[in-house]
Amino acid sequence: MMSSEAGPAVADPTLRRRIEPQEFEVFFDQRELRKETCLLYEINWGGGRNSIWRHTGQNTSKHVEINFIEKFTSERYFYPSTRCSVIWFLSWSPCGECSKAITEFLSRHPNVTLFIYVARLYHHMDQRNRQGLRDLISRGVTIQIMTEQEYCYCWRNFVNYPPSNEVYWPRYPNPWMRMYVLELYCIILGLPPCLKIIRRHQHPLTFFTLNLQSCHYQRIPPHILWATGLI
């Protein structure tokens, strides 16, 4: 059993693939608009606990989603008929082009199930990105905004957390999380954007505002509106 006083177990086979706490907090802070994307992923090959792979990745000359697809399909264990479940934890949601590449990949490999959790929505006002996410959902991909539960899971399984700090406690409140949840519903339902993000170059802060129209109140389930705590 893992001790909460010693950090990740020394024998943990995923330890060399973990990121440092500061990296995790910087990449996945929903208040910030960091340019680079970080991916934490888990592949379950369906053969029990030892069949789970965990790894991390970042943008290179290509987006991190493309890097994953190329690496994944090159693994000697992988065949077109391979059945597995993949979970992505992304600091940014896929762009329109990456969504298209993911959809094509899943079409070629129908036995792969993909779940995507994102900290932020990438250029969510861009219709190409919005349509790309809808296309992924139509293809059967589950897309959700990361909540405290996912942050805690990532902290324990992907971060080289310090001793006596096994339980992750966000250093920031979560109204940003709720606003992104609301905007994702707008995307899924094909509604106009309700979230506006402004970052002035001369100002260190990023401003998040909601602009709800009558169509939002009519189409978005009431419990989602109320759950945000912002309505």
Task: Explain what this protein looks like in three dimensions.
With 231 residues, the protein is an alpha/beta fold. It is 35% helix and 18% strand. It has helices spanning 21-28, 64-74, 96-108, 127-138, 148-158, 175-188, 214-219, 222-227; strands at residues 38-44, 52-58, 84-90, 112-118, 142-145, 195-199, 206-210. Strands 2-1-3-4-5 form a five-stranded mixed sheet, sandwiched between helices. A two-stranded antiparallel ribbon has the order 6-7. Helix 3 packs parallel to helix 4.
Low-confidence blocks of residues: 1-5
Q: Termini, distance in Å? A: 44 Å
Share of residues in strands: 15-25%
Tally of helical segments: 8
Structural class by secondary-structure content: alpha/beta
**What is the chain-wise order of helices and strands?**
HEEHEHEHEHHEEHH
Strand order of the largest sheet: 2-1-3-4-5
Portion in helices: 25-40%
- Sum up the overall morphology in one term: globular
Radius of gyration: 18 Å
Tell how many strands the DSSP assignment holds: 7
Biggest pleated-sheet summary: 5 strands, mixed
Average pLDDT score: 85
Summarize the structure.
This protein has eight helices and seven strands. The chain is α/β, with parallel strands linked by helices. The longest helix has 14 residues, at 175-188.
What are the key terms here?
231 residues; five-stranded mixed sheet; two-stranded antiparallel sheet; alpha/beta; single chain; disordered N terminus
